[in-house]
């Protein structure tokens, strides 16, 4: 069975941790290959899912937020509640707090947005996410390396010296997230870069007419072909180099108001070094 396919499915795992070095955080992965970060926030340990599909800074449980905002030195302010819409069309109204300055495992962050955590997203098998979340909102105007080769997350001051050897793709910042353009034939498809999706997906009602499908074994040899539909997309980097990627096409329709056609998930990024330049809106990957 396809036990590995997960979109926004989170697993909790408590571990004993030492303080992390000041320049990076260690990454580890759940059984579906989704990245987890064990960090220290205001002297409390947390396990957070790294989710670039979320525009907020952190999604924390109510009791975690209450402990944070009770600390007067953090200068937390209560903002207006916010409505979040996920890829399945589900809506959540969440509380919002802004923290003036927060030290997270020895790395300082200013103007941190913290929202209440509620399970959300498209799930397979009816499971619900239970991990708190670290979203891309933490990386506003930053250069962040998600090193899935060496399993660490690092804030960079400059691009690596060998960056010309990396593939780069322009990103578009939208309300829904960081959009990257892929193609199916001559048809452009807009995908949200989402580290909380185990596999890339395309919504079935966004596919061009005549799309050809493969069986599930194209992605997982141990599954049966009838468990999912798979198709192929192309990504073209800024040097004009093509790269094919296999994507899953879930059954069912997605809301028309979504301004994207699918997700670029961890199967595209896992085991590689990825840099997202939030200042210049560029996605780099070193293969």
Q: Based on CA inertia axes, which overall geometry fits?
A: globular
Per CATH, the superfamily of the largest domain is Acid Proteases
CA-based gyration radius: 19 Å
Which stretches are low in confidence, meaning pLDDT under 50 for 5 or more residues running? 8-22
Q: Gap between N and C termini, in Å?
A: 30 Å
Tally of alpha and pi helices: 2
Largest sheet, in brief, is: 13 strands, mixed
Indicate the mean pLDDT.
88
Which structural class is indicated by helix and strand composition? mainly beta
User: Might you state the CATH topology name of the largest domain?
Assistant: Cathepsin D, subunit A, domain 1
Strand content: 35-45%
CATH architecture call of the largest domain: Beta Barrel
InterPro entries: Peptidase_aspartic_dom_sf (IPR021109)
Protein name: Aspartyl protease
Write the layout of secondary structure elements.
Blueprint: E1 24-29, E2 35-41, E3 44-51, E4 58-60, H1 62-69, E5 76-85, E6 91-104, E7 107-116, E8 132-135, E9 143-147, E10 152-156, E11 167-170, E12 172-173, E13 178-184, E14 187-193, E15 201-202, E16 214-215, E17 229-236, E18 242-249, E19 262-264, H2 266-269, E20 273-277, E21 282-286
Organism: Xenorhabdus bovienii (Xenorhabdus nematophila subsp. bovienii)
InterPro entries: Peptidase_aspartic_dom_sf
Protein name: Aspartyl protease
